[in-house]
């Protein structure tokens, strides 16, 4: 698992930087993804003419993706064609019946998990576990759909016997962030990493020297750039399903992996805490 651009294929490089592209860069990105054969067989001048842009604009875009130039991008693109560079999951159509939708959604989720596994940095993941296990307090933050993921994370991590916390209300989240200290850790979940609420909250955390971990779908977002440690997801958008919905599957899976890894590290302490919680919950069940 690697996170640097040089270890990603072209589709992943483009996807992780999409939110930062200019309109011209978006045009080039769409052409590469939709017309890979034309890129492979054409010259930089032919591609630029097809998109109605300058050669220099295409060249700079290639550099932006981490390639030495257009020829370098072409070679990489040609080598990736066996793995199907275009949309890997099928688009959902209005005419699809329920079984077809079911199949496509499951395949989309599978692809999201597979892609995310490719972009997660193994060293960052291990460091996240180390920071969580040695922190005095752990707080989960998220707004909108990400708030649900934050709540799920709290539901998991409280079983480990560690001091974890989560607030559902946005104002309470901001208040909670102001109370965290240097020895604490904040885990911020946001698909885009661009929302005003999450950035304002991050600013408060940074003022208090709180160590921050970001889980987001955009590697070059304000959140990714400012957190101490980032774990990125990767997902695709379809006509009937936004990429934010698919990314939630990846976010939940990252948090699952962190929790299980944490429990393994905790050993008997984690097991004892889990058993205690199970006994308490069992009292709520009806025989």
Walk me through what this model shows:
The chain folds into two domains: 79 residues, Winged helix-like DNA-binding domain superfamily/Winged helix DNA-binding domain (Arc Repressor Mutant, subunit A, Orthogonal Bundle), CATH 1.10.10.10; 165 residues, Rossmann fold, CATH 3.40.50. The chain has 14 helices and five strands. The radius of gyration is 21 Å and the shape is globular. Helix 9 runs parallel beside helix 13. It has a five-stranded parallel sheet with strand order 2-1-3-4-5, sandwiched between helices.
In short:
With 287 residues, the chain is an alpha/beta fold.
Descriptive tags:
14 helices, alpha/beta, 287 residues, 5-stranded parallel β-sheet, Rossmann fold, Arc Repressor Mutant, subunit A
The CATH homologous superfamily of the largest domain is called: Glucose-6-phosphate isomerase like protein, domain 1
Number-wise, the strands total: 5
Specify the structural class: alpha/beta
Shape designation = globular
Q: What top-tier CATH class of the largest domain fits best? A: Alpha Beta
> What value does the average pLDDT take?
86
What strand line-up does the widest sheet have?
2-1-3-4-5
H and E string: HHHHHHHHEHEHEHEHEHH
Beta-strand share of residues: 5-15%
Proportion of helical residues? 55-70%
Number of helices: 14
Count of distinct structural domains: 2
Largest sheet: 5 strands, parallel
Reported CATH architecture of the largest domain: 3-Layer(aba) Sandwich
Radius of gyration: 21 Å
Query: How far apart, in Å, are the first and last alpha carbons?
Result: 45 Å
* Unreliable parts: 84-89
CATH fold-level topology of the largest domain? Rossmann fold
